[in-house]
């Protein structure tokens, strides 16, 4: 056992052990073994990479959602090959990641033959970080872009009430002699998960993140969560990107807009019932240039210009530490996970 701070006792768990533990939890709370394996790997990867807003912090939300009957934890996605560069998946009111897994081989083969392919997932729930959905494509030499819409909690720039979700955009590109270039960002000024974490810790937020129930600017996370709302990042610019995510992840896929579903009849439900879009590009089709070497050159020039931190660097540092020493979790949290797993 180690100590993160004088107040919080922590323990270390290996990535493989955490995946197994989360897998047992998901199965015990109503998912199929196949869905459990995918969600557990996803959630443990976020914890391993220090992406805490979408790591084990999310488990209570997954469990209350499964218990509420809002999501189908045993759904089997239906994959449709609809055009030369277009794959559609009906996730069957299940999670988005198993839908992606079911369509992945077809998507990659289409991207490699046509140069570009699109995956449109609908009737799906995404409760996770988005980078795990794109990074593996870049690890096999492909460029990937994904968007997913969430639940109404963001006021469009210039509007009076919330309408958009926190609507993240994730991008991954291969890089010669280096980890893929990956960014993953909410189009809100802050992710909803981070507001919940700040509220739990009793911390105030920086200015410009959200408004209270009267529409007044607030730095109190509880005021945002209890009747208030978030703002887009970057004013009208983030708002336009959030609108784009609604169009691509919902209108184009056949999924719900963030404002089109209601949890009211499912107390405990937390997962947005929306859609997700992925675009995968095979850069070997570009003219005469090796894309991965070009992306490495860009990174080299960014460093030469004085840049110290690229998106993804923090995650990779956290990943290396977790894989070397284990993933550090508060003992209380680990005990709770073991109890949920029935260990
Ligand atoms: P952050 O603002 O923490 O980070 C956004 C991106 O910027 C990351 O790629 C991050 O890299 C990078 N970054 C952060 N700080 C710096 C810096 N100083 N210099 C260079 N790069 C930097 O993420 P968000 O709070 O916007 O989103 C958090 C997570 O929430 C995401 O994974 C997102 O997918 C998820 N989310 C999921 C939703 C869903 O519906 N499923 C909805 C909304 C959000 P690094 O990771 O290395 O720090
Ligand atoms: O952090 O904004 C968020 C979020 C919404 C759905 C899943 N994560």
From TrEMBL:
Pfam family, one: Ldh_2
Top class in the EC scheme: oxidoreductase
MF-aspect GO terms: delta1-piperideine-2-carboxylate reductase activity; protein homodimerization activity; pyrroline-2-carboxylate reductase activity
Gene Ontology BP term (one): proline metabolic process
E.C. designation(s): 1.5.1.21
Keyword check for NADP: yes
Keywords: NADP, Oxidoreductase
Reactions this protein catalyses: L-pipecolate + NADP(+) = Delta(1)-piperideine-2-carboxylate + NADPH + H(+); L-proline + NADP(+) = 1-pyrroline-2-carboxylate + NADPH + H(+)
Entry's family note: Belongs to the LDH2/MDH2 oxidoreductase family.
Assembly with partners or alone: Homodimer.
Record's protein name: Delta(1)-pyrroline-2-carboxylate/Delta(1)-piperideine-2-carboxylate reductase
Top-level taxonomy: Bacteria, Pseudomonadati, Pseudomonadota, Gammaproteobacteria, Pseudomonadales
């Amino acid at each position: 056992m180690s100590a993160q701070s004088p107040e919080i006792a922590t323990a270390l768990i290996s990535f493989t052990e955490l995946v197994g533990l989360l897998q047992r939890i998901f199965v015990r709370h109503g998912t199929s073994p196949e869905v459990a394996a995918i969600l557990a790997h996803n959630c443990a990867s976020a914890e391993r990479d220090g992406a805490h807003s979408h790591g084990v912090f999310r488990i209570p939300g997954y469990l209350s959602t499964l218990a509420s009957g809002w999501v189908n934890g045993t759904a089997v996605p239906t994959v449709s090959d609809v055009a030369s560069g277009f794959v559609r998946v009906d996730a069957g009111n299940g999670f988005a990641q198993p839908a992606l897994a079911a369509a992945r081989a077809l998507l990659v083969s289409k991207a490699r033959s046509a140069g570009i392919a699109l995956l449109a997932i609908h009737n799906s729930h995404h409760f996770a970080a988005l980078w795990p959905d794109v990074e593996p494509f870049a690890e096999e030499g492909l460029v990937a872009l994904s968007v997913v819409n969430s639940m109404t909690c963001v006021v469009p720039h210039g509007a009076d009430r919330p309408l958009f979700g926190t609507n993240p955009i994730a991008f991954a590109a291969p890089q010669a002699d280096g980890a893929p270039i990956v960014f993953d960002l909410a189009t809100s000024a802050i992710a909803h998960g981070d507001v919940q974490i700040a509220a739990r810790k009793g911390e105030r937020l920086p200015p410009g993140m959200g408004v209270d129930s009267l529409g007044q600017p607030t730095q109190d996370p509880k005021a945002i969560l209890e009747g208030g709302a978030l703002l887009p990042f970057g004013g009208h610019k983030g708002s336009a990107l959030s609108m784009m995510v609604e169009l691509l992840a919902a209108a184009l896929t056949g999924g719900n807009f963030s404002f089109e579903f209601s949890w009211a009849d499912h107390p405990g439900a937390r997962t947005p019932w929306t859609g997700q879009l992925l675009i995968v590009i095979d850069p070997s089709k570009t003219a005469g240039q090796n894309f991965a070497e070009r992306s490495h050159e860009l990174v080299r020039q960014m460093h030469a210009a004085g840049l110290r931190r690229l998106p993804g660097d923090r995650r990779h540092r956290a990943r290396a530490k977790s894989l070397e020493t284990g993933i550090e979790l508060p003992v209380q949290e680990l005990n709770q996970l073991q109890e949920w797993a029935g260990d």
